[in-house]
């Protein structure tokens, strides 16, 4: 049965909404319980306008006469109305946002210049509902994000994060992180003020380390990490010639991110781990940060010690100007504060506190272990493959609801940056993906058909369904091979590397490398082993990177049908190369130049002609042999006849 539509007049026609609280309660519940299609856009606009008017920041406002439950119902009704983008644009206006900000409790604890009404405590139920309305508006309306930024909404969020103590609820922290993320999207000026004036970096460091790493807190941690990502992405870095611009004010963010990377128990790239990976992509491997990149967290000590975290937060405070203390959480009153007090002079944005936390936390110790970072990120890649593309499932097979090109590239790109950023990281990756003792025998099968990370990457490089993942997989192997096409071909074979090299504009066989001989006449202690390794490398098939056959030409072991099939495949390949405007596979020079296909055809015709000549010679030899055999038989028969004649004659 279809419900009757709700119209604005049901609410606005209430003669005195201050006193007729039962009627107001009933209508507000009707709005909350209404189906999405039960309220037309024009009625949604009317409801929003009426509710905002009742909730305005004014000492004569209607909401001041309501009991606590109706006050909360009014904000909940606004939350329901804000979920639909059609008809809710009125909430994105500056006046509506000012009203919502007042009820979130994020503004100054002192009354506004237009009234003597104090705001709610930020963690009260009405304040949380107002924050949810604000978050809905920012998600659905870009105008709302612009207007909130103009109202210094970013700084209000930064202040609230800085003033929160260790008892802050995860619901409030979740909403502060979400609103902070939305108000900082594409807004460098907002991020700059939050970092430089309100100590946002220190607040983010605190919460990344303080939030318990249990699944119940993953959503909250994800919102905090999304705000961290925006800070790293949109902070206005000073102009420099560096490929990765950076400001040392953000240095303290790296260690908590690495702590989360190593401490989260996840092996799949799902939130919050995926947000950690995205944030780490934005941190450079500079000389000043390299020691941090090479470290891992040790288990925290059993006795709390705040010296290390205090040193970290002091570093943050030194980059910000001195600030006076104002704590929103110190606002007097009950859970829903609507008391009246004398109106002071017009306040500005409340000043930041001198200390970031009431209770310092223990920063985990660290130890240097260069293999930890690449090993952890590589394990995330393995976890994804084991979950969605276990061997021997092909990469071109679709998994319903899974967007591979949105999940894998950040993981692989981080591995690329790891390999490029530090020689130790690159060496570890190469030793584990392309070890010197890798079984390159034909019996073990082609490299791209094997189980393991190397096989997964090589198969991904041939995938047509996920081009971004394909390209980043190739970039990883390119990076660990020192960005050298000869090394890449030697390690994985030209058959696997051809696509990547073509996309890089590298065609044809790899150039030979010339190594300078050591002037030291004394043999190196490891010279015999190195020469043996070089011999093994030179003994590889350039196409497959497997050991070359020592049993002679492989064609000798092929049947005629297999030879014909291989010839057809080569003709198709060279035909495609001839038609390619970039690659022209030819042999010879000048007027004698021929396409490879023509050269092969001529060679096959020549061999075919030679084969016919050989066949004629064989037939002629067989005829001569047959004639000799018949002559011998005739001679033997003549001798037998002569002997028989002699016996008959002697018997007479």
From TrEMBL:
MF terms in GO: G-protein alpha-subunit binding; guanyl-nucleotide exchange factor activity
Compositionally biased region (Acidic residues): 528-537, 613-625
InterPro entries noted in UniProt: ARM-type_fold, Chaperone_Ric-8_A/B, Gua_nucleotide_exch_fac_Ric8
Chain spans, region Disordered: 317-361, 508-563, 580-652
Pfam families assigned to the protein according to its UniProt record, in alphabetical order: Ric8 (PF10165)
Keyword Chaperone part of the UniProt annotation: yes
UniProt entry keywords in alphabetical sequence: Chaperone, Cytoplasm, Guanine-nucleotide releasing factor
Biased composition, class Polar residues, residue ranges: 322-332
Biased composition (Pro residues): 343-354
Example of a GO cellular component annotation carried by this entry: cell cortex
An annotated GO BP: G protein-coupled receptor signaling pathway
Stated family: Belongs to the synembryn family.
Name of protein: Guanine nucleotide exchange factor synembryn-domain-containing protein
Originating species: Naematelia encephala
Lineage of source species: Eukaryota, Fungi, Dikarya, Basidiomycota, Agaricomycotina
């Amino acid at each position: 049965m279809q419900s009757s539509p709700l119209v604005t007049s049901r609410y606005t026609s209430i003669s005195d909404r201050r006193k007729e609280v039962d009627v107001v309660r009933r209508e507000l519940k009707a709005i909350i319980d209404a189906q999405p299609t039960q309220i037309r856009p024009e009625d949604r606009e009317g409801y929003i306008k009426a509710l905002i008017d009742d909730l305005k920041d004014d000492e004569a406002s209607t909401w001041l006469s309501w009991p606590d439950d109706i006050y909360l119902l009014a904000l909940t009704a606004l939350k329901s109305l804000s979920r639909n983008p059609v008809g809710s644009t009125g909430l994105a206006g500056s006046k509506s946002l000012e009203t919502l900000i007042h009820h979130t409790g994020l503004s100054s604890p002192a009354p506004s210049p237009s009234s003597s009404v104090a705001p709610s405590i930020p963690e009260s139920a009405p304040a949380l509902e107002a924050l949810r309305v604000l978050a809905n508006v920012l998600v659905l309306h870009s105008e709302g994000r612009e207007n909130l930024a103009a109202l210094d909404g970013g700084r209000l969020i930064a202040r609230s994060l800085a003033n929160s103590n260790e008892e802050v609820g995860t619901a409030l922290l979740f909403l502060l992180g979400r609103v902070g993320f939305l108000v900082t999207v594409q807004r460098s000026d907002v991020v700059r003020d939050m970092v430089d004036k309100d100590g946002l970096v220190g607040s983010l460091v605190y919460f990344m380390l303080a939030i318990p790493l249990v699944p119940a807190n993953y959503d909250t941690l994800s919102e905090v990490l999304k705000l961290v990502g925006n800070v790293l992405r949109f902070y206005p870095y000073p102009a420099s010639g560096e490929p990765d611009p950076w400001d040392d004010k953000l240095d303290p963010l790296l260690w908590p991110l690495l702590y989360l990377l190593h401490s989260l128990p996840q092996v799949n790239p799902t939130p919050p781990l995926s947000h950690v990976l995205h944030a780490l992509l934005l941190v450079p491997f500079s000389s000043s940060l390299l020691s941090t990149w090479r470290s891992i967290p040790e288990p925290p000590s059993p006795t709390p010690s705040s010296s290390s975290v205090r040193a970290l937060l002091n570093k943050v405070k030194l980059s910000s100007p001195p600030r006076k203390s104002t704590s929103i959480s110190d606002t007097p009153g009950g859970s829903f504060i609507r008391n009246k007090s004398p109106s002071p002079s017009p306040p500005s944005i409340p000043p930041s506190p001198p200390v970031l936390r009431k209770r310092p936390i223990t920063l985990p110790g660290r130890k240097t272990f260069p293999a930890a970072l690449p090993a952890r990120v590589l394990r995330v890649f393995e976890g994804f493959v084991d979950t969605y593309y276990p061997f021997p499932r092909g990469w071109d097979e679709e998994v319903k609801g899974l967007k591979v090109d949105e999940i894998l590239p950040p993981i692989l790109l981080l591995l690329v940056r790891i390999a490029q950023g530090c020689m130790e990281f690159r060496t570890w990756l190469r030793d584990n993906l392309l070890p010197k003792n890798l079984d390159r025998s034909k019996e073990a099968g082609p490299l791209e058909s094997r189980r393991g990370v190397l096989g997964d990457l090589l198969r991904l490089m041939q995938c047509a369904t996920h081009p971004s993942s394909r390209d980043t997989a190739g970039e990883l192997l390119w990076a660990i091979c020192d960005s050298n096409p000869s090394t890449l071909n030697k390690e994985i074979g030209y058959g696997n590397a051809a696509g990547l090299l073509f996309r890089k504009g590298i065609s044809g066989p790899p150039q030979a490398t010339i190594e300078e001989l050591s002037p030291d006449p004394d043999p190196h202690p490891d010279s015999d082993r190195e020469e043996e390794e070089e011999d093994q490398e030179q003994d590889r098939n350039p196409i497959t990177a497997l050991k070359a056959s020592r049993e002679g030409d492989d064609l000798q072991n092929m049947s005629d049908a297999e030879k014909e099939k291989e010839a057809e495949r080569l003709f198709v390949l060279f035909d495609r190369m001839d038609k390619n405007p970039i690659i022209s596979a030819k042999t010879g020079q000048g007027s004698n130049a021929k396409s490879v296909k023509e050269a092969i055809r001529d060679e096959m015709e020549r061999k075919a002609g030679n084969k016919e000549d050989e066949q004629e010679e064989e037939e002629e030899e067989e005829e001569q042999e047959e004639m000799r055999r018949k002559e011998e038989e005739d001679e033997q028969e003549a001798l037998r006849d002569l002997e028989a004649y002699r016996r008959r004659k002697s018997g007479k």
